[in-house]
Amino acid sequence: MDTPSTDRNLFQRLLGLCATRPPADQGAWTFDGDRVVLDLNRTPELASPYGAVRLEGGGLPERVLVVRDGDAYHAFRNRCTHAGRRLDPVPGHECVQCCSMGKSTFDWEGRVLSGSAATPVVTFPVTAADNTLTVSLHVAM
User: Fold this and answer.
1) Among 9, 12, 18, 5, which residue's Cα sits nearest to residue 80?
2) How does pLDDT run across 44-56, given as a tens digit for each residue?
3) What is the pLDDT of residues 21-43, one digit of tens each?
4) Strand 64-69 and strand 105-107: pairing?
5) Which domain holds residue 93?
6) CA 36, CA 56: separation in Å to the nearest integer?
7) Does the residue 113 lie in any domain?
8) Which contiguous run of DSSP H or E holds residue 89?
9) Which of 8, 70, 84, 112 lies 20 to 30 Å from 98 when distance is taken between CA atoms?
């Protein structure tokens, strides 16, 4: 079986340019200690399956990628374990992929499916209630 891939040209892969953007409404999310809270009414990017946003800055200790899969949401440390580049969802597939040449691909649980990465990416617990999405950045080691 072929590994699914995001649609990136050679130039985008060489420079590690990801397709996932921050939310258009930067006020749609807040960071409080060890959790990120997103207002789903203000993040239309997450309204459809495989929609995604990347969260950076705002006091976050690390980059976060949030992806919608049907009615479920997934959150990842947005850093490939091979080259440190950002991740993008692969539309139509239950995985995310590094934006670099290595095309490291990870399932929703963060496990390596293919590519250069030797270790999984970190996933974060997500809860959704009342049009609010909460991502816990606390990771048990």
Assistant:
1) 18
2) 999 998 899 999 9
3) 999 999 999 998 899 999 999 99
4) unpaired
5) 10-136
6) 11
7) yes
8) strand 87-89
9) 70
Residues of the chain with pLDDT under 50: 1, 140-141
The kind and range of the H/E element at 11 are helix 10-15
The reported pTM is: 0.89
Q: How far apart are CA 45 and CA 87, in angstroms?
A: 16
Domain count within the chain: 1
Contact predicate 20/65, CB 8 Å: yes
Distance CA 107, CA 75 (A): 12
Q: If residue 102 lies in a helix (H) or strand (E), which one and from where to where?
A: none
**Among all chains, which residue has been given the structure tokens 């580049």?**
85
- CATH number, domain of 77, equals 2.102.10.10
